[in-house]
Amino acid sequence: MKVTRRKFLAQASLLSAGTLLPKFALGQAQKIRVGLMLPYTGTFAQLGTAITNGFKLAVNERGGKLGGRELEYFTVDDESEPSKAPENTNKLVQRDKVDVLVGTVHSGVVMGMIKIAKETNTLMIVPNAGLDAATGALCATNIFRTSFSNWQPSYPMGKIMADRGIRNVISLAWKYGAGEEAVAGFTEGFIKAGGKSVRGLWIPFPNTEFQALLTEIAALKPDAVFVFFAGGGAAKFIKDYAAAGLRKTIPLYSSGFLTDGILDAVGNDAEGLETTLHYADGLNSKKDKEFRAAYAKAHKSEPDVYAVQGYDAGLLLATGLDAVKGDLTKRKEIIAAMEKAKIDSPRGAWTMSKAHNPIQDIYLRKVVGKENRLVSIAHKALADPARGCKL
Ligand code: PHB
After folding, report:
1. Ligand 1 pocket: which of 145, 149, 150 to mutate (most atoms <8 Å of CB)?
2. CA 387 to ligand 1 center in whole angstroms
3. Could you tell me the domains of the chain?
4. How much of the chain exceeds pLDDT 70, in percent?
5. In CA terms, which of 5, 135, 309, 378 is 20 to 30 Å from 60?
């Protein structure tokens, strides 16, 4: 091929223009690498899927771009298995070199993720796992949560039950971070409001052999039972509690994880159950109606609290990236924008606490048919105490 002098010079000047392009402009052309580390198998599989669907809906509503840049997803199934958390997190951080880590559901797994996110200063958004320490003793500038602390939805149920004259409660939960902290939050609210005693029964996660425990509860005859279960395990527990005949004799209460996303699976057995959570059916706000319609259209299923938390993780990341037009090198400005964010969530607008956890309304809900129908606001703008956080 003959190369004329003119062609050669034109080519050379293009090349040098390329090398002179600011790093930022080159970076802009690249996609933002988002690591989704969530459970896609096991008792929390549906939760991981709903979070993923919600996150992608928020991004797709923005034309697939945040801060003007397209996203590339890297996905890891964490199996809700804490022992695999370091290896799984490193797949995303070291191998895939993600810019943002989104995950996870399980409080034990999130602990491993946070350790690596802190060591590598990776921006991280927690779209479920309630581990109190995530926005407490382990809080960090680069760690945000769009869901709840385990304390948060359970604490208000303590007062509701005490106000109803309930004095002696048996708690039953999976014996791991989330179960222990949910029971602790409930107990704190219950005793403060006049409750007398909470006796704890435990079952290893993700075990669902409830029979012996239900027999024990029937024999102990407490005024009421408070539980923490979620996902597939929650559906099984609701059915077993009803089948044991306990619904008629011992009232059952829980945070709303017991009844969210599983009502199709339990038939009539959940009817009338009252729970507290940061989302409910029938909120009737414009935002919630739009979200529910868009989610149902995109995913051919009804959204639940997990879908909302994933959606809000997308909204939060959008707020950070829009503030810097997608320039990830401006970390300080991204963080500042995320800290100041007022998230227009389907659950109702919420703001970020100093410790990076939502300050949000907690609703009392009651199962009516296939809905966790709004009854009242159990606690307005509840902030987690963020014990041990020094941000
Ligand atoms: C948790 O492990 O933090 C957890 C899991 C499932 C829920 C809520 C909390 O529904």
Report:
1. 150
2. 19
3. 27-148+283-359 (3.40.50.2300), 151-277 (3.40.50.2300)
4. 93
5. 135
